[in-house]
Specification:
Layout: E1 4-6, E2 9-16, E3 29-33, E4 35-36, E5 49-58, E6 61-66, E7 69-70, E8 72-77, E9 80-85, E10 92-97, E11 102-111, E12 133-134, E13 138-142, E14 148-157, E15 162-169, E16 175-178, E17 184-185, E18 189-191, E19 206-211, E20 216-221, E21 226-229, E22 232-235, E23 238-239, E24 242-246, H1 260-273, E25 277-280, H2 287-296, E26 299-303, H3 311-314, H4 317-334, E27 340-344, H5 356-370, E28 375-377, E29 379-380, E30 395-398, H6 414-426, E31 433-437, H7 454-470, E32 474-479, E33 485-486, E34 500-501, H8 514-525
Parallel strand pairs: 24-25, 24-32, 25-26, 26-27, 27-28, 29-30, 30-31, 31-32
Antiparallel strand pairs: 1-13, 2-3, 2-5, 4-12, 5-11, 6-10, 6-13, 7-12, 8-9, 8-11, 14-15, 15-18, 16-17, 16-19, 19-20, 21-22, 22-23, 33-34
Helix pairs in contact: 1-2, 4-5, 7-8
The protein binds alpha-D-galactopyranuronic acid.
């Protein structure tokens, strides 16, 4: 197995509001990688370019993996450009000849200025803070000539314990071994010895090692099937009701570069409270996040980056191809994780405009070309006016009864029932009916029972959970949102007190609000 070197450390750093010629840069400080330069310290809230540099000892063919960065970047090896990307939150994998063995320079110029063009994947009006930095780990690996590029293991028949194996390797002949057992010749469909199914209650995992004679690697996978029967979401053939949270990957002081310890604490907290699902809103998730969900037994809706994109963007050829590319990369990256059961994209895009059908179809085709074993959806805000829902498997609605557009100061349970009845009425019978977002803002410590109080949020969400629990037609609800998250206060200054989206059921430091305690009690009571 090739040795993987972590490049996480303190890198040389320079911040500039305008672009600098590489040879002119005077690195005057240090920044941690992973890290967001605008999440704390002297560059807090500033927009510009963060130049990160470090040296690396290596030679020959290498694979450089950057877990994620944002918002856009130029990547340079020995001062030569090797990639430009605007795919914030996506993993970047670069395989290239690093030159003679010895010391080389890696420079990553990260730009957090908003790009407002229709082709842009991250605009200022997105309702989450656009951090600048290298969000996730960076690694480097020297590769043999006949290296293994990727290994996919997709459950085929869960009664028989068979999997479909796809190996992308320069050397054709590969041997594989399951769970430390005997090496056998690889075949397109293989039976896993002594297999056990994966589910949230029993998150059993298997390992498959691959050897092609010059390179060796190992992947972890799980056997489970997610599908739709009689309009219900099913796992391993049985209806499963989704009770989940939307989670932004952010933490005060760290921005989008959430330390692993905090990530693990979040996921454990969510699992222990009794939730079974996380929607990774609104971008691809890290390898560590999905590995933890596989192990803890949490289902994941993973989606590519998008937020409220309008027809002008949705019909822009660059936007379409960038959306397809980031979605393809997301599916390839996460395909072995049993926790991922739904692929999503384009949160709240303008899918009431028939011109959106082109991009939605292209995204569905892109996903299907990589993986036919999971369900596909997108979260719509357009209810009966949406014209793209026939293209996906699940009818998923973002809906805010009792929050937006009503004059009531106190919570009125009738609004929830009315809203859900209307949505169920427009949902085709063959599709699962899923609430992909619902919630209310609550300022922690506010207890006057009216809007913005913890009580108002708790009453609303308790009413929603009760309705979903009792209603067999409803496949589930994913609360908006797990924790309060910073947003760009320039845009929503009057709707976002403190510069935060305050609909978290825990605050930004993960201190529970009443809603958290109430939902936890309800979930535990129904276990
Ligand atoms: C939308 C959107 C979320 C968030 C939410 C809100 O549903 O998908 O990202 O902005 O609204 O809090 O209003």
């Amino acid at each position: 197995m090739a040795k993987i070197e972590s490049l996480d450390s303190l890198w040389d750093f320079k911040f500039s509001e305008t672009e600098l010629a590489l040879e002119e840069i005077v690195f005057d400080s240090k920044q941690p990688v992973p890290g967001c330069f605008d999440a704390s310290g002297e560059h807090r809230y500033r927009r510009g370019i963060g130049y990160y540099r470090r040296t690396v000892r290596c030679g020959g063919l290498v694979r450089l993996t950057i877990g994620a960065l944002g918002l856009r970047a130029g990547i340079y090896w020995d001062a030569k450009p090797i990639r430009r990307t605007q795919r914030a939150y996506s993993r970047e994998v670069l395989i290239f000849d690093s030159g003679a063995a010895g010391e080389h320079e890696l420079l990553i110029a990260v730009d957090n200025r908003y790009d407002e063009a229709p082709s842009s994947l991250f605009r200022r009006d997105y309702d989450f803070y656009g951090y600048g930095g290298i969000y996730r780990s960076v690694t480097l690996e020297e590769l043999p000539k006949d290296f293994i590029e990727s290994v996919q293991v997709i459950p085929e028949d869960i009664a028989e314990g068979t999997v479909r194996v796809k190996i992308n390797s320069a050397a054709e002949h590969c041997k594989v071994a399951f769970d430390g057992g005997a090496w056998v010749d690889c075949a397109p469909v293989m039976r896993v010895p002594d297999f056990k199914l994966w589910s949230p209650d029993s998150p059993n995992l298997h390992r498959m090692a691959v050897d092609n004679g010059s390179d060796r690697t190992e992947v972890v996978f799980g056997l489970r099937r997610a599908d739709v029967r009689d309009g219900c979401f099913c796992l391993n053939g049985k209806p499963l009701k989704i009770f989940g949270v939307n989670r932004h990957n952010a933490y005060p002081g760290f921005g989008a570069a959430v330390p692993l310890e905090k990530l693990e604490q979040d996921l454990r907290m969510i699992k222990e409270a009794g939730f079974n699902t996380i929607r990774g809103s609104h971008y691809p998730q890290s390898e560590e996040m999905l590995t933890l969900c596989d192990r803890l037994g949490l289902l994941v809706w993973e989606e590519s980056l998008g937020w409220g994109d309008q027809a002008e963007a949705l019909t822009n050829p660059v936007f379409i191809s960038e959306q397809c590319e980031q979605t393809r990369q997301m599916v390839q990256k996460s395909i072995n994780h049993p926790s991922v059961v739904i692929w999503g994209f384009l949160n709240e895009a303008e899918t009431k405009d028939s011109r959106a059908r082109q991009i939605v179809s292209a995204l569905v085709r892109t996903i299907r070309a990589e993986d036919t074993s999971r369900l596909i959806s997108y979260a719509t805000m357009f209810r009966g006016k949406d014209v793209c829902m026939d293209l996906v498997d699940i009818a998923a609605y973002n809906t805010y009864p009792g929050w937006g557009g009503t004059a009531n100061l106190f919570f009125d349970p009738a609004v929830v029932e009315r809203d859900f009845e209307e949505l169920m009425g427009i949902t085709p019978p063959e599709k699962p009916f899923l609430i992909s977002e619902i919630g209310a803002g609550a300022l922690i410590g506010t207890h006057h029972r009216r809007r913005w109080s913890e009580e108002y949020q708790a009453e609303l969400l308790a009413c929603v959970f009760e309705y979903v629990r009792k209603n067999p037609r409803c496949s589930g609800v994913i609360v908006w949102q797990f924790c309060d998250t910073e947003t760009d206060n320039n845009i929503r200054v009057l709707e976002r007190p403190r510069g935060f989206n305050n609909k978290g059921i825990v605050d930004e430091y993960r201190r529970p609000k009443l809603a958290w305690l109430q939902l936890e009690a309800m979930l535990k009571a129904s276990e």
